[in-house]
Amino acid sequence: MRSAAAGGKTSSTELGAARRRDLLEAAYTLIAEKGLEGLRTRDIAARAGVNISTLHYYFGTKDELLAAIVTHVTDKFVEAQRRPAGQGAAGPADARAILRAHLESAWRTFQDNPHLAAVLQELSVRAQRDPAAQAALRAVHKEWNLAVEHLVRQGVRGGQLRSDLDPRSAARVVTSFIIGAMTQLGIDSEAFDFHLVSDELDRWLAPADGKRARSRG
Questions:
Q1: CB 109: neighbour CB atoms within 10 A?
Q2: Predicted structure pTM score
Q3: CATH number for the 63-210 domain, one of 1.10.455.10, 3.40.190.10, 3.10.270.10, 1.10.357.10?
Q4: Which residues bind DNA (predicted)?
Q5: Which residues of the chain have pLDDT under 50?
Q6: Residues 6+ apart with CB under 8 A from 134
Q7: What is the rounded CA–CA span in Å between residue 78 and residue 37?
Q8: Which helix (H) or strand (E) holds 155?
Q9: 32-91 tens-digit pLDDT
């Protein structure tokens, strides 16, 4: 099959994917500006530079649009968080450094996407009464927590983290810290220094007196 690049043309599939992304980016920006309650499909279409029928072509129902928005928004965060977690292949001795990198990556992600904290909060509130949004966000949180839990377990076994940590609970502490920190800093950017607080979290996770804990095997 001849590729679009070879012919110097953009395929209809690529154009469709790009238009779909444009619509989701428009929705993302409008949610940040007006909240989910103020989100209107006509406004999304206008912001993306298309007519309303085009939006309905890509998203047949409002539930379908909402599910796509949840995926689009959470992907902005989750993809960035997968990268430092994936470095775990280097070995359990690196687990504490990877967790520190995970925290730093979260900070950079929110700094690079200034609307992200507000939009995620809007979606979280919506998920409390919308089953589709709830299911989508639950899946994202589950994947994220499992990735951090794996790192904590590696760190405990390798002696880089406290030997008495429960990996599941510690992972929830890490992810809850990131969510809570971004919520507070989204309201007041001077509430605290993210790096200083994340350093405290790192010290809490570390073996006593900075010594290597005995491996659990």
A1: 19
A2: 0.75
A3: 1.10.357.10
A4: 40-59
A5: 1-6, 84-92, 211-217
A6: 127, 128
A7: 25
A8: helix 131-158
A9: 999 988 889 999 999 999 999 999 999 988 888 888 888 888 887 766 555 544 444 444
